[in-house]
Amino acid sequence: MDNRTVKFLTKGIWVAIVLFVLRYFICKFSTLYDFIGATGEVITVTLFIMGIYSCWLWKYNPLEKVPKLMGTYKGIIDYKFDGKEGQKETIVTIKQTLISIKIQIRTNEITSNTIVGNLVEERDEYVLYYTYITNPKSKYSKKNPIQYGTCRLSTENPKYLEGIYWTSRKTIGDIKLTRINQK
Predict the structure, then answer these.
(1) How far is CA 129 from CA 42, 95, 103, 126, 165, in A?
(2) Which of 79, 70, 76, 73 is CA-nearest to residue 100?
(3) Is 37 in a helix, a strand, or coil?
(4) Is 31 helix (H, G, I), strand (E, B) or coil?
(5) 29, 56, 59, 89: which could form a disulfide with 34 (CB 3.0–4.6 Å)?
(6) Distance from C-alpha of 134 to C-alpha of 56, rounded to nearest angstrom
């Protein structure tokens, strides 16, 4: 389990403890049935609060250090494959919660979607790593078949992402992205 998930679960436990103590002072437990009922209420409310926080509220918390990458980016992919170099324009959509991230890249030939993605802390900076699978348009599927790839993007400035990628077909390249809107 990564550090962000552990911190999130720890916050959830503290929220549950505080809510349980408040619930106890509002209505004292006189039976085991009261205790079990209060526990169920506290768990339900905690799950609701933590779900809302994970999906939306964390974006507005100035103490959260996780970069806010959600939005649409436009960029260039410089690639090398089979001794040839090329360049493609791309549109990238990033959907993010506090503990998950999904990336979709679209070019004129393919759409690729995240299999797994994670923001990893490296030397006090978050770096976005993700593994993806491509889905080529049918007319490009022989020349550019389905493949798996991994990408590493620096998130030092969330408005401009830069990094490298490599694929199962031995394609390598650089990616430079500029955010065009934030969601």
Answers:
(1) 36, 14, 10, 10, 10
(2) 70
(3) helix
(4) coil
(5) 29
(6) 29
Report the residue count for the chain: 183
The helix or strand, by DSSP H or E, that contains position 14, with its residue range, turns out to be helix 3-26
Distance CA 39, CA 164 (A): 48
In whole angstroms, give the CA distance from residue 64 to residue 38: 31
Against a cut of 0.90, is the pTM above it? no
- Ranges of H-type helices in 27-139: 32-55
Residue identified by tokens 């998130």 is 155
Task: List, for residues 58-113, the tens digit of each pLDDT value.
Answer: 999 999 889 999 999 999 999 998 889 999 999 999 999 999 999 999 999 999 99
